[in-house]
Amino acid sequence: MKRKLLLVDDDDNIRFVAELSLEQDWQVSSASSGRHALEIAVAENPDVILLDMMMPGMTGAEVFEQLRQIDATKKTPVIFMTAKVQKEEVAQYMALGVNGVVLKPFEPLRLSEEIGQMIGTSVCA
User: Fold this and answer.
1) Is there a domain that residue 125 lies in?
2) 120 to each of 25, 46, 76, 79, 123, how far by Cα in Å?
């Protein structure tokens, strides 16, 4: 059985490409906003959450903070996706307690493997 991944990004094109690149190894659910992501995370209890940093309404950091306050998602691995890739910014994200940072634009053929490495597991193919 495939592990569950919640993909959160407000950009339809990024969600489409990421879903295509992940669906072979993961059971992918997606959300286009932070609020929707919180609802899905509680309802579906994903094994990992791939979370865009820059979204309208709630930033990825705000969503992450709320996920850590919910018992069901308190320990769920979270990986940020962002185009802000300065060393200082990545260090700030990691200091929040995320499992990793995927840089945009990401390499679709390596995305699943990259996520697996960040959460310390091999993907199930």
Assistant:
1) no
2) 15, 16, 13, 12, 10
**How many angstroms separate the CA atoms of 59 and 13, rounded?**
19
Question: What single letter denotes the amino acid at residue 88?
Answer: E
CATH number at residue 90: 3.40.50.2300
Residue 124 lies inside a defined structural domain of this protein: no
Specify the pTM. 0.93
Asked if residue 61 belongs to a domain, the reply is: yes
Query: 106-117 as b/e, with b when 16 or more CB fall inside 10 Å?
Result: beeeebbeebbe
Distance CA 73, CA 90 (A): 22
- Into how many domains does the chain fold? 1
List the chain pLDDT tens, one digit each, 125 residues: 899 999 999 999 999 999 999 999 999 999 999 999 999 999 999 999 999 999 999 999 999 999 999 999 999 999 999 987 788 888 888 999 999 999 999 999 999 999 999 998 765 44
Residue 9 domain boundaries = 3-119
